[in-house]
Specification:
This protein is mostly helical. The protein is 68% helix and 2% strand. The protein is built from 13 helices and two strands; from the N terminus they run H-H-H-H-H-H-H-H-H-H-H-H-H-E-E. The chain is elongated.
């Protein structure tokens, strides 16, 4: 359980880890779909290859677009690519980095599907059994009245009556499956070698300082968008609360209440709490202001300079009574 908690904490630590976790889940789902799906080869010369190519190509395309859809890098990349320049210039290296990260993660599940189908071999047998020369194997059923192509197309169908108690079908299936597995292992080896060479050679020809900058600003875009969304949610909540309270306040009839004069510290604390509530709205208290703020965020992103807010002096408030005793302080 502790290891499982550590794994879950890793995948929840940042958006990149979450994207990796989603891609791994999609890869596992692709394996589960393949093992649970019942493939029925049509065993007809004109349809075997078409059916096999469909099973080999269509699910990987679906898994690829699912990977693109659930990957957070996709939205960040498109926002950065399509946004107006405004006060902030675009960095093509960041967009390229985000596209590469999105593409690598989206290709994981399709490649797993293709490798599983090749290593299993059933789709390959359905597609290329008609291409095998029957002379290479003994026990060919030549007393069926069918031509050779139609007989070879029925090799994937072990329930067919012409291959009952026949070693010919098993021999052809083993032969084609060996080719299928050879292709699958070759592709897997090529991908591993390509990835290893890329990790080893890239630092020799790439500027490490530029790579660090690119990674930093790509992470910054992701964090900035998340913080903006969270701030919008908090503002919308406070804005809605103010609207609802104001509605109920407007429905209340005027009344005169005679209450004892509250103490200074109570009034001060109430005013301070109201000031805090106003601060959460950031002075944006009308629909037109909200729309203007959102338009400005999209068309005129703030420049990457926080000098003013970093050196802004902090105002501290302290209340004292007549004798100089501190009643409240936020120092």
């Amino acid at each position: 359980m502790e290891r499982l908690k550590l794994v879950l904490q890793y995948f929840q630590s940042n958006s990149e880890s979450i994207s990796n976790g989603i891609c791994i889940v999609l890869a596992l789902v692709s394996v589960k779909l393949y093992t649970s799906f019942d493939f029925n080869c049509p065993c007809l010369p004109q349809y075997n290859k078409l059916y096999s190519l469909g099973v080999m190509i269509v699910p990987p395309i679906i898994l690829f677009f699912l990977g693109v859809l659930v990957n957070r890098h996709t939205g960040v990349m498109m926002d950065e690519w399509m946004r107006p320049v405004g006060n902030r210039s675009k960095n093509p290296a960041v967009v390229k980095y985000l596209f590469s990260a999105m593409l690598q993660r989206a290709l994981l599940a399709p490649m797993v599907w293709i490798l599983v189908t090749l290593l299993d071999g059933k789709i390959f047998i359905c597609a290329f059994s008609v291409s095998v020369d029957p002379v290479l194997f003994s026990g060919f059923p030549n007393n069926t009245g069918l031509d050779v192509i139609k007989i070879m197309a029925k090799v994937p169908c072990k329930e067919d009556i012409i291959f009952r108690n026949s070693s010919f079908r098993k021999a052809v299936s083993r032969y084609v499956r060996c080719y299928s597995q050879a292709v699958g292992w070759s592709i897997l080896l090529f991908l591993i070698v390509l990835g290893s060479m890329g990790r080893l050679i890239k630092p020799c020809f790439d500027d490490q300082a530029s790579s660090l900058q690119t990674r930093y600003w790509s992470n910054y875009l992701d964090v900035e968008q998340k913080l903006f969304d969270e701030t919008c949610v908090l503002h919308a909540r406070d804005f809605a609360q103010k609207c609802v309270v104001q509605f109920f306040e407007d429905m209340r009839e005027d009344a005169v209440l005679y209450l004892p004069h509250p103490r200074f510290i109570v009034n001060s604390q109430m005013e301070w709490e109201e000031d805090e509530e106003e601060e959460r709205l950031h002075g944006v208290s009308k629909q037109e202001q909200v729309d203007q703020l959102l338009n400005r965020w999209y068309y005129n992103k703030p420049e990457l300079d926080v000098t003013r807010i970093a050196h802004r002096p902090r105002v501290c408030v302290t209340w004292k009574d007549r004798d100089g005793k501190t009643l409240y302080s936020d120092v």
